[in-house]
């Protein structure tokens, strides 16, 4: 209602994926569900309750605003971990609500101690170590200061975790770099432990590290993309297949993006279709007009390139994708009616449109396309 397209989120697909992930990590390792980027485009409000039904009790986000949304959405108690942005004003709110957070600068550590003192409540910190990604994290010299401060503030703050993030575990090209990061991490961790500190949770793995490098599992894994049914990269999938005897992809996608046929039009041979002259009808054609365009995240780059599904059949986008509509070729399809379902992403009958087929294959495409799906397209949970 009131929307030209909508997104369905499959609960059974999530159950399947969580079961697969749990089997991979074993029962002793905690699974933190990464729901940054609006749960990778799936919608925090739709995704989180079904994840909780699947037994997830730990969520990781990027920033305080996401943590805030998550907190409103939880249906039962769960741990929330902020991995990135949190300004000093938000720190007080986070600590007051038992939200855990990464610490990668002395400033945040000291501020957390001050606020904890004021609130009479211990902040739970995850010390992020620099191991080679060169983004955030304490390198060895700054770690010395952090440990000294932790020692000094141990009445106010608790060292809940020690963690790092790998710089591209989804590509074998980075194999040596990932292994070096893992070594350096273990090294720094034992230094932290010999300094008398004992973190409760040690964690380093994202999806790609979890599936390709089991030694990175430790106490907890932070899983984003795979819970939504996507492999971090084609390489990760082929690596997994080479190590296992499986016949089909063990993951299932949660997301289906749908619209409807808004109008049908006949176009005589030789006419140009849409703006400009990028498509000229090579024969008499039947078109379906679909009320989705680049304003809804359907990229203009898919002009004359993309496909949608109508009546279980692939239909090509012809002409340029407009702001709010696109035209698709239904000349070969029998009996298409106004209001017939159009699948932009996902399956219909035996056909499917994958995220990868949305454009040229690049390793980050899944992540980017999913997180760019506009937040104002309604999302519905289905079985
Ligand atoms: C996004 C993110 C993850 C999850 O990555 P996936 O590849 O989606 O599993 C884990 N850790 C950190 C620090 C992240 O930023």
From TrEMBL:
Superkingdom classification of source: Bacteria
Swiss-Prot/TrEMBL cofactor(s): pyridoxal 5'-phosphate
Alphabetized PROSITE patterns for the sequence: ALANINE_RACEMASE (PS00395)
Gene for this chain: alr
Protein name, as recorded: Alanine racemase
Sequence ranges assigned to domain Alanine racemase C-terminal in this UniProt record: 254-382
Assigned protein family: Belongs to the alanine racemase family.
Top-level class of the enzyme under EC nomenclature: isomerase
UniProt-annotated binding residues for substrate: 135, 323
The protein's annotated pathway: Amino-acid biosynthesis; D-alanine biosynthesis; D-alanine from L-alanine: step 1/1
Record-listed N6-(pyridoxal phosphate)lysine modification sites: 36
Entry-linked Gene3D superfamilies: Alanine racemase (3.20.20.10), Lyase, Ornithine Decarboxylase, Chain A, domain 1 (2.40.37.10)
Protein role: Catalyzes the interconversion of L-alanine and D-alanine. May also act on other amino acids.
E.C. designation(s): 5.1.1.1
Active site: 36 (proton acceptor), 275 (proton acceptor)
GO cellular component terms listed in the entry, alphabetical order: cytosol
Catalytic activity: L-alanine = D-alanine
Record keywords, A-Z: Isomerase, Pyridoxal phosphate
GO molecular function list: alanine racemase activity; pyridoxal phosphate binding
């Amino acid at each position: 209602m009131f929307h030209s397209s909508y997104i369905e989120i499959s609960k059974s697909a999530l159950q399947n994926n969580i079961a697969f992930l749990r089997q991979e990590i074993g029962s002793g390792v905690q699974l933190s569900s990464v729901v940054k980027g609006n749960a990778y485009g799936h919608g925090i409000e739709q995704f989180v309750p079904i994840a909780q039904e699947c037994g997830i009790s730990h969520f990781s986000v990027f920033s305080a605003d996401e943590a805030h949304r998550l907190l409103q959405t939880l249906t039962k108690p769960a741990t929330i971990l902020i991995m990135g942005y949190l300004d000093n004003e938000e720190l007080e709110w986070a600590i007051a609500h038992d939200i855990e957070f990464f610490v990668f600068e002395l400033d945040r550590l000291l501020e957390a101690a001050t606020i904890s003192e004021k609130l009479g409540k211990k902040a739970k910190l995850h010390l992020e170590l620099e191991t080679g990604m060169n983004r955030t994290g304490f390198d060895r010299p700054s770690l010395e200061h952090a440990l000294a401060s932790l020692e000094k503030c141990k009445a106010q703050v608790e060292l809940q975790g020690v963690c790092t993030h790998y710089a591209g575990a989804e590509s074998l090209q980075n194999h040596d770099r990932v292994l070096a990061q893992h070594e350096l991490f273990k090294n720094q961790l034992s230094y932290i432990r010999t300094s008398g500190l004992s973190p409760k949770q040690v964690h380093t793995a994202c999806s790609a590290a979890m599936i390709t490098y089991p030694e990175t599992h430790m106490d907890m894994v932070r899983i984003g993309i795979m819970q939504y049914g996507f492999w971090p990269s084609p390489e990760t999938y082929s690596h997994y297949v080479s190590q296992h005897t499986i016949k089909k992809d063990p993951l299932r996608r949660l997301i289906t993006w749908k619209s409807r046929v808004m109008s049908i039009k006949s176009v005589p041979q030789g006419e140009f279709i849409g703006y400009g002259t990028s498509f000229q009808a090579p024969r008499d054609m039947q078109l379906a007009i679909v009320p989705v365009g680049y304003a809804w995240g359907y990229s203009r780059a898919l002009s004359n390139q993309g496909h949608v599904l109508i009546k279980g059949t692939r239909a090509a986008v012809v002409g340029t994708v407009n702001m709010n509509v696109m035209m698709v070729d239904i000349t070969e399809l029998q009996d298409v009616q106004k209001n017939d379902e159009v699948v932009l992403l996902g399956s219909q009958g035996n056909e499917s449109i994958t995220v990868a087929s949305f454009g040229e294959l690049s390793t980050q495409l899944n992540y980017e396309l999913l997180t760019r799906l506009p937040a104002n397209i309604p999302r519905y949970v289905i079985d």
